[in-house]
Specification:
extended; seven-stranded mixed sheet; 16 strands; 31 helices; alpha+beta; five-stranded antiparallel sheet
C-alpha cells in the first residue's frame, strides 16, 4: 500500500491522520509524479485558527499559492522555518523572481494546474535550501490542494508537506524490520483502528481466522447479528433490528471500554469455533490480548490484538496452575527490577522457603533459570553475581527476620531501614499488602504497584523526621491497628486497603515546615489549598497524580465505583492527620462512637454507617501517625530527637526571615524533648483514652506510652527542672 499521510483538524476530534488512495509509483530525483488519484479529490479545509495546531506537527508544512505569475508564500510552521533559518516575516516576503527560469516556471505552472485547479496530489523529491545559503536538505514533498479561510476570505492554496529523506529512510528501515518481525511471529497479531477496521495482520492470524479478516469483531468470532451497532456503518441503518447479546460481544465491548488510554491492556478467554478444511467446526478457547498503542509516524491511536490457543491449558487449570502462574509472574518481575529494593519486593511476596531452597541449590538454580541473570543484576553498586549470591541471600534473610516482627508493637523501623538498603517504605508496604492478600483480592497490577511505591518513596525528602522511614513506621503501625484490634466489626476489606494506602502517602513530599508556616509565608501549597490543610492537601494531590499515571496506576482493574470509594476514604484519612483537626476528631470519637458502644440498645449490631467507618479510620491513622510514642524506648527517643531537630530547622528559617519563631522551634530554648510530658497529658492521652475505651484491645498502647512518659518525667526531675519552674506557656499540639 502506497499512501500519503495528510492531516486535517476536525472540531471536537482533534488532529487525525487519514490515508488517501492506494497506488504504486516510481520517482527519481528532480522529477515529480502525479499520483493516481481521482481528478476531483476534496481539498483539505484549513482555517487560520488551525495554524497553531499545525505548528506542533513533527513535519515541515507550507501553504503556498502557485497562481501566476509567481508563487506566493502564505504560511509555514515552526519546523519548516527552523529548517530554512528564516522568520515568518522573511518567509512571507520571499521573492521567487530570481528563480524564474523556464524549468521553474514549468514546475510552477504544473503544480498550479494539477493541484490548485484539478485537485490532484503530487509527490516530488527535491532539496530545500537554507535562506542564509550553504546548507541544503533533501526532502520528499507532498503537494495537496487545500481551501484556506484566512483574513475573512476563503482561498484555494497548496499545502506542501516535506519529509527529510534521511527521516524517510530511517522510517523505512524501521518499518522493514518491524514488518519482518511481524511476519515471522508464530502468534497471530493484528493491528486495528479504534473504530474496529483492520490495518494489517500477519500470516499466523490469517491462518487462524481466515484470509478475509476485515473487522476487529472478526477476531472475536462474532456473527452478523452479534456485531450490529459496533461500527459506524451500522449506525446509519434505518429501521429496527435485534442485537444478539453474547459472551463474545460483551467481551468486545469490555475491551473497548478498557482501552481508553495509551498503554492500556485487556485480556480475556473466549470460546470460539474453527472451520476445518472438511467443512466441520471444532470448538476451542482463544485467549485474546489487546493493547492500545500509538502509530509511531502519525501519533494516532491503534489497537494491537494477539491471540493464543489455550484450550488445553483451560482443561488442566486449577489451584496448582494458578500457583505456577503466580511464581512465573514474580520471576518476571525480578527480571524487570534493577535495584535491590525491586528484588526484595518480589521475594517478599513469595514463600520464604523459596529463598532457603535457592541458597541450598544455588548453582543448579542459576543454570536452570538464565532469565534471572543473577550475574548481571546490580543494585546500589552491589553486583548480584555468583560470587556474592550467598551474601545477598544472607541480607535477605536478615530482612526476613526484621519483617517477621512487623506484626508486633515492638517493631524497629530503623532496623528495617538498614536491612532494606534504604528502601523501608516500598519494602514494608509491599509486605503488608501481601499479608492482607490485597493484591489478589482487588486484582491489583503488581508491576504498576511497584512503580507507584518506588515513586512515592523517592518523593520523600531527607528531613530529620518527616521522611520515608517515618512513613514506613506509620504504615507498620496502621497494619497492626487494622490487624490486632476490634475494628473488624466497623471496617471491611476496602477500608483495609484505603487505610494502608493513606498511611503510605500521608506525608508525601513533606518539606519539613508545618501548616502554620506555609500559611504565614503564603506558600504555593497554602495558596492552592486556600489555607486549608496545605500540607495534607498537597500530599494527597501529588500522590494521586502519580496514581493517575498509566505506568503506576495499579488500581486500573478495579471497578470505577470502588476507585471512587477508595479515593474518598484516603482523602478523609490524610486530612485527619492535620493536628488542627485533632480535638474535633477526639470529640467525635466520644460522641459518635464511644457513646454508641456504651449503649448496645442503639442497634450497633447492624452494619455501621459509612460516616462511622470513616471516623474509625480517621482515629486509626491518627493513632498510627504518632506511633513512636508507644514504640520501644530507644526508637521513641530517636524519633523525638529527630522531631526536635526538624522543628529547630524551621525556627532557623523563621529567624532568617525575621519572623517570630514558633513555639518549641527556637534552638536556643528548650525544645520538644523538654515538653513531652505536657504534650502527652494534653494531646495524646485524651485520644488514646477514648480509643481504648472503644477498643479495649489497644490498652497495651496506653501502657507503653506510660513507660515512655515516665522516662521524660524522670529526666525532667534529674535535670533540676521542677514543674513549678517550667515555662508557663501552654502545651499546644505540635502542628504537623
Amino acid at each position: 500500500r502506497g499512501a500519503v499521510a495528510c492531516y486535517r483538524f476536525e472540531e471536537d476530534r482533534g488532529w487525525e491522520s487519514f490515508l488517501e488512495g492506494s497506488c504504486s509509483f516510481t520517482v527519481s530525483n528532480s522529477t515529480s509524479a502525479i499520483m493516481d488519484y481521482p481528478p476531483t479529490c476534496r481539498p483539505k479545509q484549513v482555517h487560520e485558527n488551525d495554524f497553531l495546531a499545525l505548528d506542533f506537527l513533527p513535519v515541515c508544512i507550507e501553504i503556498v499559492s502557485y497562481a501566476p505569475p509567481f508563487p506566493k508564500n502564505i504560511w509555514a510552521n515552526s519546523k519548516h522555518l527552523n529548517l530554512i533559518g528564516a522568520s515568518i516575516e522573511e518567509y512571507k516576503s520571499y521573492s521567487y523572481v530570481m528563480y524564474a527560469d523556464d524549468v521553474e516556471r514549468s514546475l510552477w505552472e504544473h503544480r498550479y494546474q494539477a493541484v490548485q485547479e484539478k485537485y490532484r496530489h503530487i509527490l516530488e523529491r527535491s532539496s530545500i535550501e537554507h535562506y542564509r545559503g550553504g546548507k541544503k536538505t533533501a526532502v520528499e514533498t507532498v503537494y495537496t490542494p487545500c481551501q484556506v479561510t484566512i483574513g475573512g476570505g476563503t482561498f484555494m492554496y497548496v499545502m506542501k508537506v516535506h519529509w527529510p529523506i534521511d527521516t524517510v529512510n530511517e522510517r523505512e528501515v524501521d518499518t522493514t524490520y518491524m514488518t519482518s518481525l511481524l511476519e515471522c511471529s508464530p502468534y497471530p497479531l493484528c493491528f486495528f483502528t479504534t473504530d474496529g477496521h483492520l490495518i494489517t495482520c500477519n500470516p499466523a492470524a490469517r491462518q487462524v481466522f481466515g484470509k478475509t479478516i476485515w473487522l476487529q469483531s472478526d477476531i472475536f468470532g462474532m456473527g452478523e447479528r452479534e456485531r450490529r451497532g459496533l461500527n459506524v456503518a451500522d449506525m446509519q441503518f434505518s429501521g429496527s433490528f435485534r442485537i444478539e447479546r453474547t459472551e463474545r460481544r460483551t467481551a468486545y465491548e469490555n475491551m473497548m471500554d478498557a482501552l481508553t488510554e495509551d498503554g492500556a491492556t485487556f485480556e480475556v478467554d473466549l470460546p470460539m469455533k474453527k472451520q476445518q478444511e472438511d467443512g466441520t467446526e471444532t470448538a476451542w478457547y482463544c485467549r485474546v490480548f489487546a493493547q492500545r498503542q500509538k502509530d509511531p509516524v502519525t501519533g494516532e491511536p491503534i489497537i494491537m490484538v494477539s491471540h493464543q490457543d489455550v484450550t488445553n491449558l483451560r482443561k488442566v487449570e486449577g489451584e496448582l496452575g494458578r500457583m505456577q502462574m503466580t511464581e512465573q509472574t514474580n520471576r518476571a518481575l525480578m527480571n524487570q527490577d534493577s535495584d535491590v529494593a525491586g528484588s526484595l519486593l518480589t521475594l517478599l511476596g513469595e514463600d520464604w522457603k523459596f529463598l532457603e531452597n535457592q541458597q541450598e541449590n544455588m548453582q543448579a538454580e542459576m543454570e536452570l533459570d538464565d532469565a534471572m541473570e543473577w550475574e548481571q543484576r546490580t543494585a546500589s553498586g552491589i553486583t548480584l553475581g555468583a560470587d556474592n549470591c550467598i551474601t545477598q541471600s544472607q541480607k535477605l534473610k536478615g530482612l526476613r527476620l526484621c519483617l517477621d516482627k512487623a506484626d508486633d508493637w515492638d517493631f524497629d523501623v530503623f532496623e528495617l531501614e538498614k536491612e532494606a538498603d534504604g528502601y523501608p517504605l516500598q519494602v514494608l508496604t509491599w509486605h503488608v499488602f501481601q499479608k492482607h492478600n490485597l493484591i489478589e483480592e482487588f486484582n491489583l497490577d503488581r508491576i504498576k504497584l511497584i512503580n507507584f511505591l518506588r515513586q512515592v518513596e523517592a518523593g520523600h525528602l531527607e528531613n530529620p523526621y518527616h521522611n520515608a522511614t517515618h512513613v514506613a513506621d506509620v504504615v507498620q503501625s496502621m497494619h497492626c491497628i487494622l490487624s490486632k484490634g476490634g475494628l473488624r466489626k466497623f471496617i471491611g476489606r476496602m477500608e483495609v486497603l484505603a487505610g494502608l494506602l493513606a498511611a503510605c502517602v500521608h506525608d508525601f513530599e513533606h518539606r519539613g515546615f508545618n501548616n502554620d508556616f506555609l500559611i504565614k509565608t503564603q506558600d504555593d501549597w497554602a495558596i492552592d489549598s486556600n489555607d486549608k490543610s496545605p500540607n495534607e492537601s498537597h500530599h494527597l494531590a501529588s500522590a494521586w497524580r502519580i496514581l493517575r499515571n498509566p505506568e503506576s496506576n495499579f488500581i486500573h482493574r478495579m471497578p470505577h465505583a470502588q476507585q471512587v470509594q477508595l479515593r474518598k476514604l484516603i482523602i478523609e484519612m490524610v486530612l485527619a492527620t492535620d493536628m488542627a483537626e485533632h480535638m474535633a476528631i477526639v470529640s467525635r470519637l466520644k460522641t459518635d462512637l464511644q457513646k454508641r458502644l456504651e449503649n448496645p440498645d442503639d442497634g450497633i449490631e447492624g452494619p455501621p454507617p459509612e460516616n462511622l467507618k470513616t471516623l474509625v479510620l480517621q482515629g486509626a491513622i491518627k493513632i498510627a501517625d504518632i506511633g513512636h510514642l508507644y514504640a520501644a524506648h530507644h526508637v521513641h527517643v530517636k524519633w523525638s530527637e529527630r522531631l526536635e531537630e526538624e522543628m529547630w530547622l524551621q525556627g532557623d528559617v523563621e529567624k532568617a526571615r525575621n519572623m517570630k519563631v514558633s513555639f518549641l522551634m527556637d534552638r536556643d530554648k528548650p525544645g520538644v524533648t523538654k515538653s513531652q510530658p505536657g504534650f502527652v497529658d494534653f494531646v495524646v492521652r485524651p485520644l488514646f483514652e477514648v480509643w481504648t475505651s472503644c477498643f479495649p484491645e489497644y490498652k497495651v498502647l496506653l501502657d507503653r506510652i506510660e513507660t515512655n512518659y515516665q522516662f521524660w518525667k524522670s529526666r525532667e526531675t534529674r535535670s533540676g527542672t521542677p514543674e513549678s519552674t517550667k515555662s508557663q506557656e501552654p502545651a499546644e499540639p505540635i502542628k504537623d
